[in-house]
Structure formats: structure tokens, C-alpha cells
Amino acid sequence: MIQQVHRHRYRSLLAVTAALTACGIGTGSRTLLIAAIVPLLFVLQDALATEPSLTNRLSVERELSPEAPLPGQPVSVTLTIMNTGDSTIPDLRIADGVPTELGTIGGDPRASAILRAGQKLTVNYSVNTNRGTYEFDPVQVRARNRSGTIMIESKIAPSGQSSLESRVGVDDIPLSKQTMNVTGPVTTETGGSGIEFYATREYQAGDPIGRINWNQYAKTGQLSTIEYHEQRAIRIAIIIDSRASAHVSSQPSLPTGATLCAYAATLSVSVLLDEGHTLTIIALGTPDPVRSDPPPAYASTDEETAFGTHAAMICNAAATGSDEMMTRTDTDASALAGDGGIVDQHRLLSRLNSNEQVLFCTPALDDTAVSIAQSIRADGHELTVLSPQISNSDIGGRIAHLNRADRLFRIRRLGGTIVDWKRNETLPIALSRALRDINSQ
């Protein structure tokens, strides 16, 4: 701990004392000589004041919750300062070292108090996060003595957490009943080999002996075969809307709509690969980072052995955008000029298999998102739209929110399932709501 001591508060009064004394002696004025005593007392107090010390007197602890937040998810920070000395600190002021990349959205990382021996000061505030790892700086501390004549400045590295990593985590992904003839984790409404009982049918030559209903044969003397719910995998295409119009955020410290969509796609790929599904990932407006092909970037488990690596590179490219995509902070992308919203929908549809379900991640900031959804539905695909909310609560943000709500309503009328990912809602909760709706179809 390095302390800096400042003693400049009453030093200027020494000149005042000298001036009054000289004038009093020169003019023989007793009043001036008596008046010189007042600033002299302050000067003497400053000179005789005991220098306080913060060494081994403060215990500082920082707690972050959650430690690994979702992008855009608020993080609660609790800073606890305890006076471990045996005397009171009459004037203590602290300021936590919040990373400059994070924006404070609630509370204040600064506080002041009179801290008695053994007493604690708790500071609570919250920050919003973007993708990446962030390091907190040491806590800045200032303390004064009782008279305020001496101030000490110091930086203390707190115990507990000093960094956080913003990443994606989710438990459920909404899946439709559109499957392919490969064994997987989704139960179908067709009979065959499996675990859960489905129905019995008349025995046919060649049926496995293990599936013969021997109980019924013992009762009736007739052979029948037991069928179970078949377990089949799903073909899923994950489409990320990373066009220029989606690289919009309501505040500079918050992730863009395209970035949030890329995060959701990143975890979706991980979860669905573990479950054995066949996947395709497409990033609109993003050149392929591996093959250098023009947009959209594309990867499929049907074509590649290193799909996971290629898909991760596509998600990263979609999250960051190109150099030409300057992040905007107005949330209605209809004002964008140029071809930022144009998509070669024929090329997009050619990348989709005929029995593939589509998970379309888009902030729905322009009408092109609706047009893409319409083309996907017209091509016969089951469609789920995951749409992160990024608009502010000011007048401009409310207008953008109404426009986005209208676009999502139009997609819902097309037969798509809408997952409205609200800003104060975690991704797992948003997806679990959609999962209940899809499973009931």
C-alpha cells in the first residue's frame, strides 16, 4: 500500500498571520495583533496534527454476482470496507476501480462515511457487461484527520473477485418436431424402436423377438408387436442477423443486437452438438472467416469435420462485425442508408436443407428481418425467432420498441415462434418460455 500525505489546507494562513503581525507592530494596533492569533492557531493545529495512517487499518473485499454474466446482463458489485484498527477514521471516502469499458447502471461506486473501529461500510452498485474479460482496478481511498488538515490517499487491492468474464450460458434451446431419420434426443409421434411405450400392432414376419408382446400371447394366443416412441435427431439451421443494421446498441457500453445474437448462436451450437443434432450455421452480412467467401458465412456438420471450430469463428466474426460496420447508438435501423439491410435470400435458402428447422437470431430492427422470416416460412421450414431487446426507455427507444414489436407480430402471423429476449431476462428463461410453446404444438 502506497500512501500520499497532503498538508496544504492551512499553510496559506501563515502569510496572513505574518501580515497581520507586521501591520500591528508597524501601526501599534493591538487589534491587529490579536487578530493575528486566529490564523496562527490554525497554522499551529496543522503543524501539530498527528498524521493518520491507513496501513493495516482497512480490510476491503469485493464480491461480483454473477461472476460469469451473459452479455448485457447486469452484474451486482458489493464492496465491503471494514475498519480493523482501534480508532475511528473521521472522514473516509472510497471509489471502486470500475473498468472503463463497463457502464454503471445502478447505485454509485463511490461512498463516504465516519468509520469507527470494527465498523463496516458496504457499497452496492451494478454494471452492465459486454463480451470479454474485465479487470477491476484497486479501490481508491482518501482519509482525513478530525480537523481536516491532513489528507491521505491510497490504493488498496481488495480480496475476493477482481475480474469477471462475460459469456453465454443457457440450459434449453427451443426445438420443433421437425426431425430426420437419425437417432437423437427428440421423441417423435411415430412408432418404432425406443424406450417409451407407443402402441401395439399385429405381428409381422421379421419383427424382433424382444418386441413381441408375450403377455398378450399367453392370454389370447395371438402374436403382437410392441412399438415405442422413436427418438430422432433434428436438422437445425442457426441464422445470425449480423448485417450492418443489426450492429446497433442503445448505449456505447452495451452489446449490439448482432453481438447478442452471436452469443446465443455460440451456445446453441455447443448445446445442440452435444445432443447429437445436425447443424448448419449462417451469419448474414458476414464474410466467411475461413474460406474468405462473400456473405453470408456458412458452415455445416454435413460438410466438415472441424465444424465446431469453423462455427466459433463465424460467431466471433458476426459478434464483432467488420471495420466498415461502425456501431450505432440509435435503435431504429430504418434510418440506415446504403445496402446494410440487403440479403441475397435465394442464396440463403439454397443453404437450407428441405427438412431443416430454423433458429433465426435477429434484433428485428428493420423490415428486411420480416422479409427473411417470410421467405423461410414460405420455403416450408419451421421457424423460431430469438430477438434480443436493445432499445432504451427514452422517446426514441420507445418508438424503436413499437416498430420492433410490430415486426415480431408480423413474423408471428407467418407461423413463426417468437422468443422475445427482454433486457432484464436471462437467455435460459427466454428460451424455456418458447420451449413450452413449441412442445405443445
Describe the protein in words:
The protein has 441 residues and is an alpha/beta fold. It has four domains: 3-48, no CATH class; 58-166, Immunoglobulins (Immunoglobulin-like, Sandwich), CATH 2.60.40; 188-232, no CATH class; 235-439, 3-Layer(aba) Sandwich (Rossmann fold), CATH 3.40.50. Helix content is 28%, strand content 30%. The chain has ten helices and 20 strands. It has helices spanning 13-27, 30-35, 37-48, 214-220, 257-274, 307-320, 345-350, 367-378, 395-413, 427-439; strands at 3-6, 58-65, 75-83, 89-97, 103-107, 110-115, 120-128, 132-135, 137-144, 151-156, 159-160, 163-166, 186-202, 224-232, 235-241, 278-284, 297-300, 357-361, 383-388, 417-421. The strands form five sheets. It has a six-stranded mixed β-sheet, with helices on both faces. A five-stranded antiparallel β-sheet has the order 1-10-9-4-6, with no helix packed on it. β19, α9 (395-413) and β20 form a beta-alpha-beta unit. The longest helix has 19 residues, at 395-413. It is elongated, with a radius of gyration of 33 Å.
